[in-house]
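Predict the 3D structure for this chain.
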Amino acid sequence: MVDQLNLEKKGIPTVTFATTELVGLARSTAFSMGVADMPFVVVPHPMGGIPKAEITQKAKDAYPLMVKTALEWKPAATMPAPKPAYPATTFNFKGTSDAVNELFREKGWSLGLPIVPPTPDKVAAMLKGTTRKPDEVLGQLRPRMASLTVELVAVAAVMANCQPEHMPVLIAIAEALVDPKANWAGVATATGSVGALVIVNGPIVKEIGIAFGQGAASRGHYANAAIGYAVNIMAMVPGGSKPPQAKKSTLGSPMDFVAWIFAENESKLPKGWKTYAEDRGFKKTDSVVTVMGIWPGINVVDLWSATPQEHSTWFSRSVSPLNSVGGPCFSGQLTMPHIIGLGPEHLDIYVKEGYTKDQIAKAIWEKARIPFSSWAKGCPEQKVFREKFGEVTPDTLVPITLTPEYLQIVIAGGAGQHSHFFAPFLNASPVSKIIKK
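Done. Predicted structure below.
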């Protein structure tokens, strides 16, 4: 879609095929990229996962429409005059807090959960939590391509009942979301149940009370809950990631309301180990946020293993089916980081035997694979696999990542024999930003 837009902007005519379910997303994407109208040929949904004869018939039916569109189509709409990114639009409203919430629900300005009305005085108070200027544009947030200002981050923070001291973390998260490496455009419009994972490291964790131990990503932790809620308010309201357009998740998940967020449990790091942020090139004294678009996290429960070999086998068997989202049909995933949220009790199994972080990743990686025959014959990446692994047979064991270096370890949570595995969404790399006050 972006390729067609770029060609159209250069004056090269195109015709874009879109299904009945996805044409709305295609039109809104074009609009967000500054193109008011584009030539589309709409075909019945779906185009994938159907018999060859059916897709062949759809192609035959669409061909005359493609020719007619290519020869006769003319744009019928123009872009409206752009609005300034700052200041945010305000309006007068008289009524109760319940009435404000009803208004925001009707207008699509909230997620359906209660919000704190973002009055100018509350937004101004929130902005006192940062030295950044309210008119600073952090970037364009997809899919709407809204100019995300510090002021708009403050508006989302107020709505989510954050405190001013949460602002530096939220600004850093916003900077990560607008970074192209995060592929937030894909996460925000995917048909899968994907969302944001936020990991925090450094002094700010204890300064503002971000939970890192028992149930850190669960309920009852104020900073985590408020910040995680604000992330999705930013994603939907200025970002435009709202079902059914432009968010196309088939079912969705609770991640669409409150993002996964926790701090690394640095108190449980073995002597000599670096924090996750240090592994990513930052200093221990830096406060850092890492954001990644993920598939739903997988809870790996292991109450039985007593040795690294036993636990690595169990862990790998638990996550190997995730090759369906972390690997094979999306071969690019093979060279993308996947995150292991290793629980302290599972960590102890390895530490007692002197394992390093790299050795843990390798032990799991060596076993985390399943036969190539597990995937449907329609998987389009078979050529890519032959290039990477040589001749691929039905019995070839395909690893979850190309090398163990793509399994990154974070010490996550408190007591209990549970760990987690977070597979990245397609081309959604983890993006880390320093938290600046």
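The two ends are 38 Å apart (CA to CA).
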